[in-house]
Amino acid sequence: MANRIIGLDHEQVAPRNPNRHSISVQLIPSSIVAGNTGLIFGKFGSAPVANINSNANDFVLNAGAADGANLYETTDKAYDTQELWLISDTAGQIVNVVERSVPKTVVVTP
Amino acid sequence: MTRISKVWDAADGSATPGRVFTASIAQEVIPALGKRLDFLKLGVKGAVSTAAVVIETFAGLISPFTLRKGAANRIVLALDELCALSQYYYQNHIAIGENTDNTGNDFLGDIRIPINDDFDPANQFLVQADRVAQTNIATETVSMTAYADSVSGDKKPIHAVRIQHTTAGAAGIEQMQSRIPAVGMLRALILKVPNGFADGNIDTSIQRLKIYDDMQLIAEFNDLGDAESMAQIDYVTPSPTADLLRQFRVFNFGDVGIDTTKGTISYAFDVQDVSDAIVIIPVIEITVASA
Question: Bridge-partner residues for A11, per DSSP?
Protein backbone atom coordinates (compact mmCIF):
# COMPACT_ATOMS: atom_id res chain seq x y z
CA MET A 1 0.00 0.00 0.00
CA ALA A 2 1.38 3.36 -0.95
CA ASN A 3 -0.19 6.78 -1.06
CA ARG A 4 0.73 8.92 -4.05
CA ILE A 5 -0.07 12.55 -4.77
CA ILE A 6 -1.44 13.00 -8.28
CA GLY A 7 -1.78 16.41 -9.91
CA LEU A 8 -1.83 18.00 -13.34
CA ASP A 9 1.32 16.18 -14.51
CA HIS A 10 1.56 12.52 -15.47
CA GLU A 11 2.79 10.10 -12.81
CA GLN A 12 3.91 6.53 -13.42
CA VAL A 13 2.72 4.81 -10.25
CA ALA A 14 3.85 1.30 -11.19
CA PRO A 15 6.54 0.14 -13.63
CA ARG A 16 6.08 -2.77 -16.05
CA ASN A 17 5.77 -5.97 -14.05
CA PRO A 18 5.52 -9.28 -15.96
CA ASN A 19 4.82 -11.01 -12.61
CA ARG A 20 1.96 -8.75 -11.61
CA HIS A 21 -0.84 -10.61 -9.83
CA SER A 22 -3.09 -7.63 -9.23
CA ILE A 23 -3.04 -3.86 -8.97
CA SER A 24 -5.66 -1.50 -7.61
CA VAL A 25 -5.98 2.27 -7.40
CA GLN A 26 -8.35 4.12 -5.09
CA LEU A 27 -8.92 7.87 -4.96
CA ILE A 28 -9.24 8.17 -1.20
CA PRO A 29 -12.74 9.33 -0.17
CA SER A 30 -13.16 13.05 0.44
CA SER A 31 -14.54 12.20 3.90
CA ILE A 32 -10.96 11.14 4.71
CA VAL A 33 -8.99 13.54 2.50
CA ALA A 34 -11.07 16.69 2.13
CA GLY A 35 -9.07 17.93 -0.86
CA ASN A 36 -9.90 14.91 -3.00
CA THR A 37 -12.49 16.66 -5.15
CA GLY A 38 -11.10 15.99 -8.63
CA LEU A 39 -10.98 13.09 -11.04
CA ILE A 40 -8.19 10.59 -11.59
CA PHE A 41 -7.56 9.25 -15.11
CA GLY A 42 -5.60 6.02 -15.59
CA LYS A 43 -4.04 4.09 -18.44
CA PHE A 44 -1.85 1.01 -18.72
CA GLY A 45 1.13 1.23 -21.06
CA SER A 46 1.02 4.94 -21.88
CA ALA A 47 0.09 8.30 -20.43
CA PRO A 48 -3.65 9.15 -20.21
CA VAL A 49 -5.43 12.44 -20.93
CA ALA A 50 -7.13 14.41 -18.15
CA ASN A 51 -10.40 14.79 -20.01
CA ILE A 52 -13.52 12.71 -19.48
CA ASN A 53 -14.31 12.93 -23.21
CA SER A 54 -10.93 11.51 -24.24
CA ASN A 55 -10.69 7.98 -25.59
CA ALA A 56 -7.07 7.70 -24.40
CA ASN A 57 -7.90 6.41 -20.90
CA ASP A 58 -8.62 3.00 -19.39
CA PHE A 59 -10.52 4.26 -16.33
CA VAL A 60 -11.58 7.36 -14.42
CA LEU A 61 -12.13 7.64 -10.66
CA ASN A 62 -13.96 10.14 -8.48
CA ALA A 63 -13.47 10.36 -4.71
CA GLY A 64 -13.85 6.96 -3.07
CA ALA A 65 -13.89 5.00 -6.32
CA ALA A 66 -11.37 2.29 -7.13
CA ASP A 67 -10.28 0.28 -10.14
CA GLY A 68 -8.49 -3.01 -10.03
CA ALA A 69 -8.65 -6.73 -10.57
CA ASN A 70 -9.58 -9.56 -8.24
CA LEU A 71 -8.11 -12.81 -9.50
CA TYR A 72 -9.31 -16.15 -8.20
CA GLU A 73 -6.04 -18.02 -7.97
CA THR A 74 -3.16 -16.36 -6.18
CA THR A 75 -0.83 -17.62 -8.89
CA ASP A 76 -2.81 -15.99 -11.71
CA LYS A 77 -1.08 -13.18 -13.52
CA ALA A 78 -2.83 -9.91 -14.25
CA TYR A 79 -4.00 -9.17 -17.79
CA ASP A 80 -2.35 -5.74 -17.75
CA THR A 81 1.35 -5.97 -16.96
CA GLN A 82 2.42 -2.65 -18.49
CA GLU A 83 3.28 0.53 -16.62
CA LEU A 84 0.35 2.22 -14.89
CA TRP A 85 0.08 5.98 -15.47
CA LEU A 86 -2.22 8.42 -13.69
CA ILE A 87 -3.11 12.11 -14.08
CA SER A 88 -5.74 14.33 -12.48
CA ASP A 89 -7.73 17.39 -13.50
CA THR A 90 -7.06 18.85 -10.04
CA ALA A 91 -3.83 19.40 -8.13
CA GLY A 92 -2.96 17.44 -5.01
CA GLN A 93 -5.23 14.40 -5.28
CA ILE A 94 -4.18 11.54 -3.00
CA VAL A 95 -4.58 7.98 -4.25
CA ASN A 96 -3.71 4.63 -2.79
CA VAL A 97 -2.00 2.10 -5.06
CA VAL A 98 -1.70 -1.57 -4.14
CA GLU A 99 0.21 -4.02 -6.33
CA ARG A 100 0.80 -7.70 -5.70
CA SER A 101 3.10 -10.00 -7.66
CA VAL A 102 3.37 -13.74 -8.03
CA PRO A 103 6.76 -15.17 -7.04
CA LYS A 104 9.30 -15.41 -9.82
CA THR A 105 9.75 -18.96 -10.99
CA VAL A 106 13.10 -20.28 -9.84
CA VAL A 107 14.57 -23.14 -11.84
CA VAL A 108 16.75 -25.36 -9.69
CA THR A 109 19.29 -27.50 -11.46
CA PRO A 110 20.13 -30.64 -9.44
CA MET B 1 -0.76 -1.49 -54.34
CA THR B 2 -1.32 1.77 -52.56
CA ARG B 3 -4.76 2.85 -51.48
CA ILE B 4 -5.38 6.42 -50.35
CA SER B 5 -8.69 7.35 -48.81
CA LYS B 6 -10.14 10.49 -47.26
CA VAL B 7 -11.08 10.11 -43.58
CA TRP B 8 -12.06 13.71 -42.76
CA ASP B 9 -13.03 16.09 -45.57
CA ALA B 10 -15.85 18.20 -46.95
CA ALA B 11 -17.98 16.83 -49.77
CA ASP B 12 -16.46 16.67 -53.24
CA GLY B 13 -17.13 19.86 -55.17
CA SER B 14 -16.95 21.99 -52.04
CA ALA B 15 -14.65 24.99 -51.61
CA THR B 16 -14.42 24.20 -47.89
CA PRO B 17 -10.95 22.69 -47.36
CA GLY B 18 -11.91 19.91 -44.96
CA ARG B 19 -14.44 18.69 -42.44
CA VAL B 20 -16.05 21.29 -40.18
CA PHE B 21 -14.07 21.35 -36.95
CA THR B 22 -15.93 23.78 -34.72
CA ALA B 23 -16.37 21.05 -32.11
CA SER B 24 -14.30 18.06 -31.06
CA ILE B 25 -14.48 14.94 -33.21
CA ALA B 26 -15.31 11.97 -31.01
CA GLN B 27 -13.80 8.54 -31.52
CA GLU B 28 -14.20 7.17 -35.06
CA VAL B 29 -12.95 4.04 -36.79
CA ILE B 30 -10.56 4.15 -39.75
CA PRO B 31 -11.99 1.46 -42.03
CA ALA B 32 -9.70 -1.30 -43.29
CA LEU B 33 -8.23 -0.13 -46.60
CA GLY B 34 -6.01 -3.09 -47.36
CA LYS B 35 -3.26 -4.85 -45.46
CA ARG B 36 -1.41 -2.03 -43.78
CA LEU B 37 -1.94 1.57 -42.67
CA ASP B 38 1.30 3.39 -43.47
CA PHE B 39 0.54 6.90 -42.31
CA LEU B 40 -2.09 9.62 -42.01
CA LYS B 41 -1.82 13.09 -43.45
CA LEU B 42 -3.42 16.00 -41.64
CA GLY B 43 -4.20 19.63 -42.41
CA VAL B 44 -6.06 22.33 -40.46
CA LYS B 45 -7.46 25.75 -41.39
CA GLY B 46 -9.00 28.50 -39.24
CA ALA B 47 -10.43 31.91 -40.12
CA VAL B 48 -8.95 34.88 -38.25
CA SER B 49 -10.88 37.89 -36.94
CA THR B 50 -10.26 40.91 -34.69
CA ALA B 51 -6.47 40.42 -34.43
CA ALA B 52 -3.67 38.39 -35.98
CA VAL B 53 -3.12 34.88 -34.60
CA VAL B 54 0.44 33.60 -34.71
CA ILE B 55 0.94 30.02 -35.91
CA GLU B 56 2.11 28.62 -32.57
CA THR B 57 -1.14 29.84 -30.99
CA PHE B 58 -3.21 28.43 -33.85
CA ALA B 59 -1.43 25.08 -33.35
CA GLY B 60 -3.13 24.77 -29.96
CA LEU B 61 -6.38 24.02 -31.83
CA ILE B 62 -6.07 20.22 -31.51
CA SER B 63 -5.07 19.05 -28.05
CA PRO B 64 -4.73 16.19 -28.28
CA PHE B 65 -5.10 14.09 -31.43
CA THR B 66 -5.50 10.46 -30.35
CA LEU B 67 -4.92 7.35 -32.41
CA ARG B 68 -5.45 3.97 -30.79
CA LYS B 69 -5.14 0.44 -32.04
CA GLY B 70 -7.73 -1.43 -30.04
CA ALA B 71 -7.17 -0.52 -26.41
CA ALA B 72 -3.58 0.63 -26.87
CA ASN B 73 -2.67 4.29 -27.31
CA ARG B 74 -0.34 4.74 -30.28
CA ILE B 75 -0.30 8.48 -30.95
CA VAL B 76 -1.50 11.03 -28.38
CA LEU B 77 -0.12 14.44 -29.36
CA ALA B 78 -1.22 18.05 -29.70
CA LEU B 79 -1.18 19.63 -33.17
CA ASP B 80 2.20 21.33 -32.78
CA GLU B 81 3.64 18.06 -31.44
CA LEU B 82 2.32 16.25 -34.52
CA CYS B 83 4.20 18.81 -36.63
CA ALA B 84 7.39 18.04 -34.70
CA LEU B 85 6.90 14.27 -35.04
CA SER B 86 6.30 14.63 -38.78
CA GLN B 87 9.40 16.75 -39.20
CA TYR B 88 11.55 14.35 -37.14
CA TYR B 89 10.30 11.06 -38.56
CA TYR B 90 9.89 11.94 -42.24
CA GLN B 91 12.20 14.94 -42.50
CA ASN B 92 9.42 16.59 -44.46
CA HIS B 93 8.60 20.26 -44.21
CA ILE B 94 5.11 21.04 -43.02
CA ALA B 95 3.07 23.71 -44.81
CA ILE B 96 2.44 26.88 -42.81
CA GLY B 97 0.32 29.93 -43.44
CA GLU B 98 0.54 32.50 -40.66
CA ASN B 99 -1.93 35.35 -40.60
CA THR B 100 -0.39 38.76 -39.96
CA ASP B 101 -3.45 41.01 -39.78
CA ASN B 102 -6.98 40.76 -38.47
CA THR B 103 -8.52 39.09 -41.49
CA GLY B 104 -7.79 35.94 -43.47
CA ASN B 105 -6.75 32.50 -42.31
CA ASP B 106 -4.11 30.44 -40.54
CA PHE B 107 -3.07 27.13 -42.12
CA LEU B 108 -1.09 24.03 -41.16
CA GLY B 109 -0.76 21.20 -43.67
CA ASP B 110 1.25 18.25 -44.96
CA ILE B 111 1.54 16.84 -41.44
CA ARG B 112 2.40 13.13 -41.63
CA ILE B 113 1.49 10.86 -38.74
CA PRO B 114 3.46 7.57 -38.85
CA ILE B 115 1.50 4.36 -38.17
CA ASN B 116 3.27 1.44 -40.00
CA ASP B 117 0.90 -1.25 -38.77
CA ASP B 118 -1.49 -3.82 -40.22
CA PHE B 119 -5.25 -3.48 -40.13
CA ASP B 120 -6.79 -5.89 -37.61
CA PRO B 121 -10.57 -6.32 -37.31
CA ALA B 122 -10.14 -7.30 -33.64
CA ASN B 123 -8.10 -4.18 -32.88
CA GLN B 124 -9.28 -1.39 -35.12
CA PHE B 125 -7.58 1.97 -35.63
CA LEU B 126 -9.56 4.59 -33.69
CA VAL B 127 -9.05 8.32 -34.10
CA GLN B 128 -10.26 11.30 -32.11
CA ALA B 129 -9.48 15.03 -32.27
CA ASP B 130 -10.13 17.14 -29.19
CA ARG B 131 -10.64 20.79 -30.13
CA VAL B 132 -9.44 23.61 -27.89
CA ALA B 133 -10.91 26.93 -29.02
CA GLN B 134 -8.34 29.60 -29.84
CA THR B 135 -9.08 33.31 -29.40
CA ASN B 136 -9.93 35.06 -32.71
CA ILE B 137 -10.07 31.75 -34.63
CA ALA B 138 -13.37 30.46 -36.09
CA THR B 139 -14.86 28.27 -38.85
CA GLU B 140 -12.10 25.73 -38.43
CA THR B 141 -11.82 22.77 -40.81
CA VAL B 142 -9.67 19.66 -40.70
CA SER B 143 -8.57 17.32 -43.47
CA MET B 144 -7.21 13.84 -42.83
CA THR B 145 -6.30 11.16 -45.37
CA ALA B 146 -5.25 7.55 -44.76
CA TYR B 147 -2.38 6.12 -46.84
CA ALA B 148 -2.62 2.33 -46.89
CA ASP B 149 -0.96 -0.53 -48.74
CA SER B 150 -1.94 -4.02 -49.86
CA VAL B 151 1.23 -5.59 -48.45
CA SER B 152 3.06 -5.38 -45.14
CA GLY B 153 6.25 -3.36 -44.94
CA ASP B 154 9.43 -3.47 -42.91
CA LYS B 155 8.89 -0.37 -40.83
CA LYS B 156 7.86 -0.95 -37.22
CA PRO B 157 4.67 0.55 -35.72
CA ILE B 158 5.19 3.83 -33.88
CA HIS B 159 4.31 4.71 -30.28
CA ALA B 160 4.43 8.44 -29.47
CA VAL B 161 2.38 9.50 -26.46
CA ARG B 162 2.89 12.86 -24.72
CA ILE B 163 3.93 12.98 -21.06
CA GLN B 164 3.31 16.24 -19.20
CA HIS B 165 5.86 17.23 -16.59
CA THR B 166 6.85 20.26 -14.54
CA THR B 167 10.60 20.48 -14.02
CA ALA B 168 12.12 20.68 -10.56
CA GLY B 169 11.97 23.89 -8.56
CA ALA B 170 15.75 23.96 -8.12
CA ALA B 171 18.36 24.02 -10.87
CA GLY B 172 20.46 20.88 -11.31
CA ILE B 173 20.02 17.21 -12.08
CA GLU B 174 16.44 15.93 -11.81
CA GLN B 175 16.07 12.15 -11.92
CA MET B 176 12.77 11.28 -13.55
CA GLN B 177 10.62 8.88 -11.59
CA SER B 178 8.85 7.49 -14.64
CA ARG B 179 10.49 5.00 -16.97
CA ILE B 180 10.26 4.86 -20.74
CA PRO B 181 7.24 2.71 -21.82
CA ALA B 182 8.51 -0.83 -22.36
CA VAL B 183 7.07 -1.40 -25.83
CA GLY B 184 10.07 -1.49 -28.18
CA MET B 185 13.07 0.42 -29.48
CA LEU B 186 13.39 4.02 -28.35
CA ARG B 187 14.45 5.96 -31.46
CA ALA B 188 14.26 9.51 -30.15
CA LEU B 189 13.15 11.64 -27.26
CA ILE B 190 11.39 14.83 -28.29
CA LEU B 191 11.19 17.45 -25.55
CA LYS B 192 8.86 20.44 -25.80
CA VAL B 193 10.32 23.19 -23.65
CA PRO B 194 9.18 26.77 -23.02
CA ASN B 195 12.63 28.22 -22.47
CA GLY B 196 15.27 27.87 -25.17
CA PHE B 197 18.24 29.67 -26.62
CA ALA B 198 17.67 33.29 -27.64
CA ASP B 199 19.67 36.43 -28.16
CA GLY B 200 19.61 37.19 -24.46
CA ASN B 201 19.27 33.69 -23.03
CA ILE B 202 21.69 30.80 -22.66
CA ASP B 203 20.09 28.77 -19.85
CA THR B 204 17.39 26.42 -21.13
CA SER B 205 14.65 24.30 -19.59
CA ILE B 206 16.63 21.09 -20.19
CA GLN B 207 20.29 21.94 -20.63
CA ARG B 208 21.40 18.29 -20.61
CA LEU B 209 19.72 14.89 -20.95
CA LYS B 210 21.00 11.60 -19.54
CA ILE B 211 19.70 8.08 -20.30
CA TYR B 212 20.24 5.15 -17.96
CA ASP B 213 19.90 1.39 -18.49
CA ASP B 214 19.45 -0.25 -15.09
CA MET B 215 20.97 2.89 -13.54
CA GLN B 216 24.04 2.71 -15.77
CA LEU B 217 24.61 5.84 -17.86
CA ILE B 218 24.42 4.88 -21.54
CA ALA B 219 23.76 8.20 -23.29
CA GLU B 220 24.12 11.89 -22.52
CA PHE B 221 23.27 14.94 -24.58
CA ASN B 222 23.79 18.69 -24.53
CA ASP B 223 20.93 20.94 -25.69
CA LEU B 224 23.10 23.28 -27.75
CA GLY B 225 25.21 20.69 -29.52
CA ASP B 226 23.00 17.61 -29.75
CA ALA B 227 19.38 18.74 -30.20
CA GLU B 228 18.42 18.21 -33.86
CA SER B 229 17.26 21.27 -35.71
CA MET B 230 13.64 20.88 -36.79
CA ALA B 231 13.67 23.76 -39.24
CA GLN B 232 15.97 26.50 -40.42
CA ILE B 233 16.22 27.62 -36.82
CA ASP B 234 17.31 31.16 -36.14
CA TYR B 235 17.39 31.71 -32.38
CA VAL B 236 17.37 35.48 -32.82
CA THR B 237 14.98 36.32 -35.69
CA PRO B 238 13.01 33.12 -36.40
CA SER B 239 10.63 32.47 -39.27
CA PRO B 240 7.04 31.30 -38.50
CA THR B 241 8.15 27.68 -39.07
CA ALA B 242 11.03 28.14 -36.66
CA ASP B 243 8.71 29.83 -34.15
CA LEU B 244 6.50 26.74 -34.22
CA LEU B 245 9.25 24.13 -34.06
CA ARG B 246 12.13 25.65 -32.11
CA GLN B 247 10.47 24.77 -28.79
CA PHE B 248 10.97 21.09 -29.71
CA ARG B 249 14.35 19.56 -28.92
CA VAL B 250 14.98 16.20 -30.62
CA PHE B 251 17.54 13.86 -29.12
CA ASN B 252 18.17 11.06 -31.60
CA PHE B 253 19.29 7.55 -30.57
CA GLY B 254 20.30 6.47 -34.06
CA ASP B 255 19.05 3.89 -36.52
CA VAL B 256 18.88 1.05 -33.97
CA GLY B 257 17.77 2.87 -30.84
CA ILE B 258 17.56 1.66 -27.24
CA ASP B 259 15.61 -1.47 -26.34
CA THR B 260 13.06 -0.50 -23.66
CA THR B 261 11.75 -4.04 -23.23
CA LYS B 262 14.90 -5.34 -21.56
CA GLY B 263 16.23 -3.83 -18.36
CA THR B 264 14.92 -0.52 -17.07
CA ILE B 265 15.34 2.59 -19.18
CA SER B 266 15.18 5.77 -17.12
CA TYR B 267 16.34 9.32 -17.70
CA ALA B 268 17.44 12.50 -15.98
CA PHE B 269 17.43 16.19 -16.88
CA ASP B 270 19.88 18.94 -16.08
CA VAL B 271 17.31 21.64 -15.34
CA GLN B 272 18.59 25.18 -15.81
CA ASP B 273 15.27 27.03 -16.01
CA VAL B 274 13.25 25.82 -13.06
CA SER B 275 9.57 24.85 -12.71
CA ASP B 276 8.93 24.80 -16.47
CA ALA B 277 5.94 22.98 -17.95
CA ILE B 278 7.47 20.60 -20.49
CA VAL B 279 6.21 17.73 -22.62
CA ILE B 280 8.22 14.53 -23.08
CA ILE B 281 7.54 12.50 -26.25
CA PRO B 282 9.36 9.16 -26.47
CA VAL B 283 9.28 7.96 -30.10
CA ILE B 284 9.32 4.17 -29.91
CA GLU B 285 9.27 1.50 -32.63
CA ILE B 286 6.96 -1.15 -31.24
CA THR B 287 8.28 -4.70 -30.92
CA VAL B 288 5.88 -5.98 -28.24
CA ALA B 289 2.85 -7.73 -29.69
CA SER B 290 0.37 -6.47 -27.11
CA ALA B 291 1.44 -2.82 -27.24
Answer: A86
Q: Which superfamily does CATH assign the domain made up of B2-149 to?
A: Adenovirus Type 2 Hexon, domain 4 (2.70.9.10)
B chain contacts of residue A47, beta-carbon cutoff 8 Å: 73, 76, 161-164
Please tell me if residue B183 touches chain A, with a CB cutoff of 8 Å: yes
**DSSP three-state, residue B57:** helix
Strand partners, B137: B48
ipTM confidence score = 0.89
A3-48 pLDDT, tens digit per residue, is 999 999 999 999 888 888 889 999 999 999 999 999 999 999 999 9
Give pLDDT tens digits for A50-76: 999 999 999 999 999 998 766 666 667
* A21 contacts A92 by C-beta, under 8 angstroms: no
Residue A2 or residue A68, greater confidence: A2
Work out the minimum CA distance from A31 to partner chain B, whole angstroms: 29
Distance, in Å, from the CA atom of A82 to the CA atom of B133, rounded to the nearest integer, reads 34
Tell me the fold of B162-286: Jelly Rolls (2.60.120)
**What kind and span of H or E run contains B58?**
helix B55-58
Residue A80 to residues A67, B17, B120, B175, B266, Cα–Cα distance (Å): 13, 42, 20, 26, 21
Domains and CATH numbers, chain A: 2-101 (2.60.120)
3-class secondary-structure state, position B121: coil
B128 has pLDDT over 80: yes
Residue B192 banded pLDDT, cuts 50, 70, 90: very high
List the Cα angle A40/A44/A48 in 5-degree steps. Answer: 45
Calculate mean pLDDT across residues B17-40.
94
**Chain A residues with CB-CB distance to B161 below 8 A:** 46-47, 56
A51: chain B residues, CB-CB within 8 Å: 130
